[in-house]
UniProtKB/TrEMBL annotation:
Protein name listed in UniProt: CdiI immunity protein domain-containing protein
Organism: Micromonospora cremea
Amino acid sequence: METNSWKGHVNGILYGIQFDQALDDTVVTRVADGVLGGLYPGDRAETLDALDQALRYSGPLNDQAETHHSEESIRAFLGRLSTVLSTRG
């Protein structure tokens, strides 16, 4: 998956969580349900691939779809989301 492709997936997820005060398990579940329900672009496998690439990316993940969440919080959230999506489906 090209950088622009995985970034598009991640930006869609970040857009969906930008107004959440905390990136807790409720938000992880909501986004996972959205991915599985087709509310985000791509299917579960594409999203997992995008999350894997995002978590290996050394640059900022919050550079296009800005949120008030820190880079560390976003990475932790995406890691938890990846774990949940890996076990569901």
